[in-house]
Design goal:
By secondary structure, the protein is of the alpha/beta class. It contains 18 helices and 14 strands.
Length: about 500
């Protein structure tokens, strides 16, 4: 096929010409994109087609075949999904193209929960290409997910999408599309653009070539200091780029001084007050962590788009003598896991004793939602939510290790206190995103039993690692010394 650019490539040029150049001409490896947004996009696309049944899916990525199938379907006057059009070397695929009286309705479908500025440009490009191919458009719309939609069940997704009329925006921007196209082609005939890293690297989408464009960073950049953008600019203006070169007098906040001290001395700094509240906690102590999955298109009645639906928990219960008991729950049956999750959680946590977590808003939010969803369990769940103790602010106020590089995520803190539990040693599931993908693969009917069993073990290991990590952190904050790892595996 003759040389062409896609709509997506043109949008990448609009974001940053250097991104397009690297994508088409560069030999720089791109960083892998996030898998979950792509999956969510597919879910919403399939749901949108279900709302307009009876059409033909142009289910091929090959441009020549896609164009030919589109022409055949247009002649038949059928609704089209993923129809392909080529005009003046610009290839575009329309999510929904629906026949109307004396014309067509164009609908671009997005998994976002609101209208974004770049959506108008996307619709303008689509409309320009289709108009150039002789398609008479009666409307140009953007459909996005309604975040307030509640799935009633029964495969009824009426109301899932909100439709925004972008005809005026498309008409206003369409004359600019040939200029954009000429600019993109000019970029590709020249040398690599010299464009420095800036806000465009993350908006409207993260650029996979940022690492290539970024200048070399010092080992400990000023960005390590949290909430210190103004100070960082002042220090940079003085020629200071590395935190270790910052004068102590320039730092007025205790947290900044602690980070600076640990970085200068190359060792952890633990405030003696870190364990004060923990030592006062009653027994038994419960260390709790949840895993949850999000669906752009709700799967179970009573749930919303992108709602966190918990499907797994791990709980380490510690007695006053240091004895540990590990309890866990994992539902991979594919049905709504919420009630079984909540009932098992209440049984494991009992009615007494503090419940330690890391970043309380997440677990507390899920507990509150479960209490709303299941009123008969509400009193017990709300009482459980009141027992939560957050280790994150304790770590932020009292602990820092130079290897954390300004992050207090559990995955940054844990290796500095319990390196034997480092998440890098895990294989299948290493973070919450991996956990969601593993869950989704497990509940897919055609996943082989052996693969499902492997992923189940990985999920149990990962979630158990999270709560064992909390045990080790709490003990470290109370004693100032890392306990032995023997006998503490989940």
């Amino acid at each position: 096929m003759a040389d062409y650019l896609t709509k997506t490539q043109l949008l990448h040029w609009r974001q940053c010409p250097r991104r397009l150049w690297l994508e088409v001409r560069g030999r720089v490896p791109a960083q892998a994109g996030a898998a979950l947004p792509l999956l969510h996009g597919r879910q919403v696309g399939e749901a949108a087609r279900g709302l307009f049944p009876g059409g033909r899916l142009v289910d091929t990525a090959a441009p020549e075949a896609a164009l030919a199938r589109t022409r055949a379907a247009l002649a038949a006057g059928e609704p089209l999904y993923e129809a392909a059009f080529l005009h003046e070397g610009l290839l575009a695929r329309a999510d929904l193209l629906l026949p109307q009286a004396e014309g067509w309705r164009l609908v671009e479908v997005k998994a976002a929960t609101g209208l974004k500025p770049e959506h108008a440009e996307e619709c303008a490009i689509q409309a320009w290409v289709l108009a150039g191919c002789g398609i008479a458009l009666k409307s140009a719309e953007l459909a996005h997910v309604d975040g307030k939609y509640v799935y009633p069940g029964g495969a009824d997704y009426t109301g899932l999408l909100q439709y925004r009329d972008l005809r005026a925006d498309a008409a206003r921007l369409a004359p600019l599309v040939p200029q954009w196209l000429a600019g993109a082609r000019a970029t590709l005939t020249a040398d690599e653009p010299d464009i420095t890293v800036g806000p465009q690297c993350g908006k409207p989408s993260p650029c996979p070539y940022r690492a290539h464009c970024a200048p070399p960073r010092p080992d400990y950049p000023l960005s390590i200091l949290p909430h210190a953008e103004k100070l960082a600019k002042q220090l940079a203006a003085q020629g200071i780029a590395d935190l270790r070169d910052v004068p102590e007098a320039a730092l007025t906040k205790p947290m900044h001084r602690r980070i600076w001290q640990a970085t200068r001395e190359g060792r952890a700094v633990l405030d003696g007050d870190a364990g004060e509240r923990l030592r006062q906690l009653a027994w038994p102590r419960h260390y709790l962590d949840f895993e949850a999955v999000q669906f752009a298109v709700p799967r179970w009645a009573g749930t919303r788009p992108y709602q966190f639906v918990p499907f797994q928990w791990s709980c380490h219960r510690e007695a006053a003598d240091g004895d540990l008991e590990h309890l866990e729950f994992l539902d991979l049956g594919g049905g709504d896991p919420r009630r079984a999750f909540a009932e098992a959680l209440l049984a494991a946590a009992g009615e007494a004793g503090p419940v330690l977590v890391y970043y309380k808003p997440f677990e507390q939010g899920r507990i509150h939602e479960l209490a709303e969803d299941f009123p008969d369990l509400g009193a017990g769940l709300r009482a459980l939510g009141q027992r939560l103790v957050d280790l994150l602010p304790i770590a932020q106020r009292h602990y820092y290790h130079p290897a954390m590089k300004g992050s207090w995520s559990l995955k940054a803190v844990l290796p500095t206190i319990a390196p034997d539990l480092a998440y890098a040693r895990l294989e299948q599931v290493r973070d919450g995103g991996d956990a969601q993908l593993a869950y989704l693969e497990c509940v897919t009917p055609d996943t082989p039993p052996e693969r499902r069993a492997t992923l189940a073990r990985a999920l149990l290991t990962y979630c158990g690692r999270d709560t064992l990590a909390l045990v080790r952190l709490a003990r470290h904050f109370q004693t100032g010394a890392t306990p032995e790892a023997s006998g503490m595996a989940p």
